[in-house]
Structure formats: structure tokens, C-alpha cells
Amino acid sequence: MGNEYRAKVFKSGNSVALRLPKALGFSEGDDVIVVPHDDGSFSLWRSEEGADVLLSLYGSVSEGFMADGHGDIEQMPRDWSAGDGDAAAA
Asked: What InterPro entries has UniProt attached to this entry (predicted)?
């Protein structure tokens, strides 16, 4: 890992905001994607770097990942004959 930085959370209107150190390289007005993880941590990056982040994940999954298939995701059969063609209403 790299350097460790501390950030400050503060109230901004009816929201909370995170003040990031300038050393992280973000600028005022940067569009940022924040992804929360199940363990309570977060990942963030500039939105224009989204493709780079996605490509960096390629190969980070273990070789045996999903070797046994998708697991227990069986779905009930669907009756496609019913309805008026409006998929949103289903």
C-alpha cells in the first residue's frame, strides 16, 4: 500500500462531506466515484479513470473462481405469455 492520509468528515447542508488531503491529487470539481464495500471500507477514483480501474481488476480474480459454476442462483420459470408487453410492470 501507499502512504496513509487522514481525512475529515464534516456537515455540509443536509449532507456530510469528506475533506481529502490535497496530496491525494483531487481537484475542486472532480467527478468522483465512491464504492462502499461490505467490510465498511470504500474505494474512490475519478470518473474519467473508470475504464482504467475496471481494466486493472482484470486478472485479480483467482484462477479457480467460479470453477464450480454460479452456485445457487436458480430462478423460477417465467410465464412470458402473460402481460401486455410492458416489462417494467412485471
From this structure: SpoVT-AbrB_sf
